[in-house]
Design a protein that fits this description.
Elements (H helix, E strand, L loop, with lengths): L8 E3 L21 H10 L4 E5 H4 L7 H18 L2 E6 L18 H21 L3 E4 L5 E2 L7 H18 L4 E5 L8 E2 L4 H8 L8 E6 H6 L4 H10 L3 E6 L18 H13 L9 E3 L14 H19 L2 H9 L3 H12 L4
Parallel strand pairs: 1-2, 1-10, 2-3, 4-6, 6-8, 8-9, 9-10
Antiparallel strand pairs: 5-7
Helix pairs in contact: 3-4, 4-5, 8-9, 9-10
The site of 3-O-methylfructose in linear form has 10 residues, from loops.
Length: 346
């Protein structure tokens, strides 16, 4: 059984990186895809998250080739005993999606995005996942007047409906982020995406993946966002990491910047039995560019360790004391009690 009894962890191959950033090139030797997948189990993880072109080498090739490569990936996963958690169409790098995919002004760009989404679904089916993650990276604006915002919402829902109708089993998970690469992203928060869920043809198959850093960039609290999504029974994955204030998306080790905020996320996930329906605790963490080749996976292992250590703290919180402090409205004492728990001094 998963959930409270045993959390399962996942990450995507992009979390093992060569250290390139927007200001400088690679600083570590590239590691090929199969080597990365062979590392997943070794590092203590069970699930793998994929972009479409992580699962196959390219999606801009004949369909037979995509099918062949996806089948090969399925064999690798089976041999490693790994579970493919989701496939995310990478709609933000291709020249056809410069102005976005589903909400682009150019009908040809929109058609490319829809076609690519269908391919992502085909890949997911072959490798054995029913989850499609949509990070609407370039669905938004730099210049406010460049798109019709109401039409953009209609187009987004139409795209999700197309996917739900293309495959009656697939589920769509929105990964919300308020900005970067766009100045203003459409669907910046959990609330935005959930309201879209209910406008689709099959709301039961549309939910969210919440990333810690993205909620912080929106000025929100990740644990509260997670609780809200779990009330809707729509928290189907998470990207745990950390973020130091309002700047670029840092993808830091879980708990590295704010241990209490990390505790709150573990607490809300544990209390609400996240994982009981097979959901993974996903990480989206980036190795520091300063890490040497042989140490460029410790951010993954350490994030999981922080989660597991905080889980012990969460379990030890005196529930009676918590209830009493809530009832007596002694929130100062409650705050101090939690701090002492985290410091191991309760
Ligand atoms: C962007 C992200 C991405 C997405 C991934 C899957 C690098 O800020 O967080 O990770 O999680 O592309 O949608
Ligand atoms: Mg992410």
């Amino acid at each position: 059984m998963a959930g409270k009894a045993a959390f399962r962890f996942s990450f995507g191959p992009w979390n093992i990186s060569d250290g390139a950033d927007v200001f400088g090139p690679e600083v570590r030797k590239p590691i090929d895809k199969t080597k990365k997948i062979a590392l997943v189990k070794k590092l203590g993880f069970e699930g793998v998250q994929f972009h479409d072109d992580d699962a196959v080498s390219s999606v801009d090739v004949p369909h037979d080739q995509i099918v062949k490569e996806a089948k090969e990936m399925k064999k690798i996963l089976d041999a490693e005993g790994l579970v493919p958690e989701f496939v995310a169409p990478r709609l933000w790098e291709h020249p056809n999606t410069i102005d976005g995919g589903y909400t682009a002004n150019d009908p040809k760009a929109r058609e490319y995005a829809l076609e690519r989404s269908r391919k992502a679904i085909d890949i997911a089916n072959i490798i054995g996942s029913r989850n499609i993650v949509l990070w609407p990276a370039r669905e938004g604006v730099y210049v406010n007047e460049s798109k019709d915002h109401k039409v953009a919402s209609e187009r987004f829902v139409a795209a999700v409906n197309m996917m739900l109708e293309y495959d009656k089993n697939i589920r769509i998970l929105g990964e919300m982020k308020p900005n970067e690469p766009m100045d203003h992203a459409y669907l910046p928060t959990t609330g935005h995406f959930l309201s879209i869920c209910y406008k689709t043809v099959d709301p039961k198959r549309v939910g969210v993946l919440i990333e810690t850093a993205h909620t912080i960039l929106a000025g929100l609290d990740p644990a509260i966002e997670m609780g809200f999504a779990m009330y809707h029974e729509k928290l189907w994955s998470v990207h745990l990491n950390d973020q130091n204030g309002l700047k670029f998306d840092e993808d830091r080790v879980f708990g590295a910047m704010n241990l209490k905020r990390a505790f709150d996320q573990v607490f809300v996930l544990y209390e609400n039995d996240f994982g009981a329906n097979g959901e993974f605790v996903g990480l989206d963490v980036k190795s520091l560019r300063t890490q040497k080749d042989d140490a460029a996976t410790s951010h993954l292992v350490n994030s999981k360790k922080v989660f597991m250590d905080l889980l012990e703290v969460v379990k030890k919180v005196d529930r009676k004391k918590l209830a009493d402090l809530r009832a007596s409205r002694n929130y100062e004492e409650l705050e101090y009690y939690i701090i002492t728990c985290i410091m191991g001094r309760a």
